Amino acid sequence: MAHYELYNDDGSTDREQCPRCADAFLADHGDRSHCGKCGYTEWE
């Protein structure tokens, strides 16, 4: 999936951006959100 598919027509997105590296989105894994670029993880 390309990044442009994540954005709505108004430029917003439903995904949360990584607070550490800021240019990647956090992947939702059910019990956690994870950044594949820097490894940042938020547990639910």
From TrEMBL:
Cofactor(s) in the UniProt record: Zn(2+)
UniProt keyword list: Metal-binding, Ribonucleoprotein, Ribosomal protein, Zinc, Zinc-finger
Highest rank taxon of the organism: Archaea
Ranges annotated as spanning the membrane: none
Co-factor note (free text): Binds 1 zinc ion per subunit.
SMART domains noted in UniProt: Ribosomal_S27
InterPro entries: Ribosomal_eS31 (IPR002906), Ribosomal_eS31_arc (IPR022845), Ribosomal_zn-bd (IPR011332)
Record's GO cellular component terms: ribonucleoprotein complex; ribosome
Small ribosomal subunit protein eS31 domain ranges (all copies): 3-41
GO molecular function, one term: zinc ion binding
BP term (GO), one: translation
Residue sites binding Zn(2+) per the record: C18, C21, C35, C38
Zinc finger (C4-type): 18-38
Subunit structure: Part of the 30S ribosomal subunit.
UniProt record similarity statement: Belongs to the eukaryotic ribosomal protein eS31 family.
Protein name (record): Small ribosomal subunit protein eS31
Source organism of the structure: Natrarchaeobaculum aegyptiacum
Lineage: Archaea, Methanobacteriati, Methanobacteriota, Stenosarchaea group, Halobacteria
